[in-house]
Design brief:
By secondary structure, this protein is an alpha/beta fold. The chain has 2 domains: 194 residues, 3-Layer(aba) Sandwich (Rossmann fold), CATH 3.40.50.150; 99 residues, DNA polymerase, domain 1, CATH 1.10.150. The protein has 13 helices and 7 strands.
């Protein structure tokens, strides 16, 4: 039987900071666009009190079931929807929702997915090469690893994992085919990248990140989500986004930058031609990162970055 993480092992990242910026006690309907196991959502409803309401979305059906258990005491104050966070415009329309006073997105892989070996997200646990956040997807990490041409595999690992040994790793993977498990793949990568036990970051980290991002089309969804969120935020409403690696944070930063300016034309163009409209103002000029105390309590938080913007 597959192991299932319990609610008690889930520690929401940057929770105090999220509550500080979103201020659920003085806002109305909040959207948790990646509700996961419901850690942030539970705290938001706690602070908001009986008047608080929340819509939670997740592409992982198993996560939604566990989030519902965690939020059971808030009966009548929340709704859960199976879907991608990039689909918030369509989901809001289906629910008859015109605007949100607060929007939260916690990007990346969840504790549920990392701690379930059968999901194939972690190279530290023996499992199949899956990595689908939504098990309804057709593409798996195993399909990529075992069937993509070496050149395409190397480009994927370099682009989405920022892995400088991408060509060497891709060559080793192709030579080792067929690969069936996370442990075996991690060993092949470690050998190809000449990993040493004393290194802080395991050699497989970036390749696993690249496969996960590509399988779930993660980066393409972020821009679409932020634009829709800017549309759906009520005036004075805030959007808070937590990212976990530089690629995600770069997309969030660029989207916030574009939506916080009236013109994004290159400086050499004297008259505006972009037609950009200012939607947001930046609340955090630089990303907020976890304290050392939080990192010690929850090592998975160490790479988290929080950016917040407010609807004008």
């Amino acid at each position: 039987m597959a192991s299932q993480p319990t609610r008690s092992v889930h520690v929401p990242v940057l929770l105090e900071e999220v509550l500080q910026f979103l201020e659920p006690q003085r806002r109305g309907l909040v959207l948790d666009a990646t509700i996961g196991l419901g850690g942030h959502a539970s705290a938001i409803l706690d602070v908001a009190g009986p008047a608080g309401h929340l819509l939670g979305i997740d592409r992982d059906v198993e996560a939604l079931h566990l989030a519902a258990e965690r939020l059971a005491r808030f009966r009548g104050q929340y709704q859960l929807v199976h879907g991608r966070f990039s689909e918030i415009r369509e989901i809001a329309a289906q629910k008859g929702i015109e605007s949100f006073q607060g929007i939260l997105a916690d990007l990346g892989v969840s504790s549920l997915q990392l701690d379930s070996p059968e999901r194939g997200f972690s190279f530290q646990r023996e499992g199949p090469l899956d990595m689908r956040m939504d098990r309804g997807l057709d593409l798996t990490a195993g399909e990529i690893v075992n069937h993509y041409p070496e050149r395409d595999l190397a480009n994927l690992i370099f682009t989405y994992g920022e892995e400088r040994h991408s060509r060497r790793i891709a060559r080793a993977i192709v030579k080792a085919r067929p690969l069936r498990s996370t442990k075996v793949l991690a060993e092949v990568i470690a050998k190809a990248a000449r990993f040493r036990a004393h290194q802080q970051i395991h050699a497989a980290t970036r390749t696993f990140q690249a496969l996960r991002i590509f399988v779930n089309d993660e980066l393409a969804q972020i821009s679409k989500f932020i634009q829709a969120a800017a549309d759906l935020l009520a005036s004075g409403g805030r959007i808070a986004i937590i990212s976990f690696h530089s690629l995600e944070d770069r997309v969030v930063k660029e989207c916030f930058r574009k939506l916080s300016r009236n013109c994004v034309c290159p400086p050499e163009i004297p008259l505006c031609q972009c037609g950009n409209r200012r939607w947001l103002k930046l609340v955090t000029k630089k990303p907020v990162v976890p304290s050392q105390a939080e990192i010690e309590r929850n090592p998975r938080s160490r790479s988290a970055k929080l950016r917040v913007a407010e609807k004008i």
